[in-house]
Design a protein that fits this description.
Strand content: 15-25%
Helix content: 40-55%
Distance between the termini: 156 Å
Structural class: alpha/beta
Order of helices and strands: HEEEEHEHEHEEEHEHEHEEEHH
Mean pLDDT: 85
Number of strands: 14
């Protein structure tokens, strides 16, 4: 009995143990499956390339505009038609257009500064402007103060008189006993020549040709000496005046720069040569002088 019971009891126990072991194995298998799944999932997750949001390298576009051309300043006296005069509020004329063409050759933008004629050389030497251009003739005295370019145009100093004047030619001004009053624009070669020829006491200076002509019409002077082209414009605008056939002087016009500014002078000379060779200067002069 004991043995049977023992056997029976042992059999039951073994069966229970077997069941228990199976449960444990099953649980372990399940746990292993879960862990394996987690490992696989984690591995897959880690193996999947992460989405990147790295932006493609971009080239920054240049937003800065090209620098504007440098400005070159020209001093003039804009009461010297047809070389420089006002058309509305704009200064135009032979010198203005030639200067603009020179500036373009230099890759620069022209700015014209209007001032009294006798202030031009001072402005050039002080550096407030880069060059002077106003139907300016090269003289020995001026060459002591500034440097001049090659000539770009020829000028003639003419004599304006009232109709019926006793002055009929340039020689009359030099006649023995003559004491005519001469009107000129201050600082011009007309001023320089007349003062040297007739004495400062016989020469009256004016800030521009218009004022000198008004003085002639008013009887304050007997004649006006001024460049031929401005003289023609002044006579056309004022009745009762004539230009004498004989010239008072012949001269060449040039551009002045600060003494010693050889770099700018060389550039201007080359520009004048180029603009003469290609006919630009002749075309500009022909536009204003028929």
């Amino acid at each position: 009995m004991y043995n049977y019971t023992h056997i029976q009891s042992s059999g039951v126990t073994d069966a229970k143990k077997e069941i228990t072991m199976k449960k444990i194995i099953a649980m372990m298998l399940a746990l292993m499956l879960v862990m394996t799944g987690i490992a696989v999932f984690t591995s897959c997750e880690n193996d999947t390339p992460e989405e990147t949001t790295t932006e493609a390298p971009t080239t920054e576009e240049a937003t800065t505009e090209a620098p504007a051309p440098a400005v070159i300043k020209m001093a003039t006296n804009a009461y010297f038609q047809p070389y420089e005069f006002y058309d509305g509020d704009q200064i135009v004329g032979i010198d203005a257009e030639i200067a603009a063409a020179i500036a373009e050759k230099l890759g620069m933008t022209l700015e014209i500064v209007d001032m009294e004629f006798d202030s031009i050389i001072t402005a050039v030497n002080e550096g407030s402007v880069d060059f002077g251009m106003a139907g300016m003739t090269v003289t020995e005295d001026r060459q002591k103060e500034v440097d001049f370019s090659i000539s770009y145009a020829n000028g003639v100093q003419s004599i304006i008189v009232k109709e019926g004047s006793s002055i009929t030619c340039a020689d009359d001004l030099y006649a023995e006993g003559a004491s005519y009053k001469v009107g000129v624009q201050l600082g011009t070669t007309g001023d320089i020549y007349a003062t040297g020829d007739f004495g400062a006491e016989n020469v009256t200076t004016y800030s521009n040709g218009n004022e000198a002509v008004l003085a002639l019409l008013g009887g304050d002077v007997d004649c006006v000496i001024i460049d031929n082209e401005p003289a023609k414009a002044l006579v056309a605008a004022n009745k009762g005046l004539n230009i004498l056939e004989t010239a008072y002087a012949n001269e060449d016009y040039a551009i002045c720069v600060k003494k010693g500014n050889s770099e700018l002078l060389a550039k201007i000379d080359q520009a004048i040569k180029d603009l003469t060779a290609d006919g630009t200067i002749d075309a500009i002069i022909a536009k204003y002088i028929k």
